[in-house]
Give the backbone structure.
Amino acid sequence: MKAYLGRRYRFAASHRLHSDAYDEARNRDVYGKCNNPHGHGHNYTVEVVVSGPVDAKTGMVCDLAELDAFARKNILQAFDHMNLNTLENFAHHVPTTENLCIEVYNIFKGFRGARLERVRVEETNNNSFEYAG
């Protein structure tokens, strides 16, 4: 028997959408106001979905305290109140929320308490991105 667990985490971070492959004019055309040289910020919501058998003793898919500790150490401490452009994770990628979603997924692949199914990142009330590997 397989069950799914979704857990949400929140952090604030800033970024500037800018590609070194483009000149300044093309960056402004492609990214618009998100290419502001001073950047801009978001209050991100990350939802991670894991799965596994329901443990007969605990009745749970995984230990929530372990999942939360993993998220705190590897996601929140890494990204909360950071400028994403300055992080090694984005040294070779534009820190779009699509790329952030992939990075978060790749980090959560390291969680061994359950099988990672997908990651969803909400950037705004209107924009969300999902990645399932």
In short: Residues 64-79 form the longest helix (16 residues). The longest strand covers residues 2-15. The CA atoms of residues 102 and 131 lie 6 Å apart.
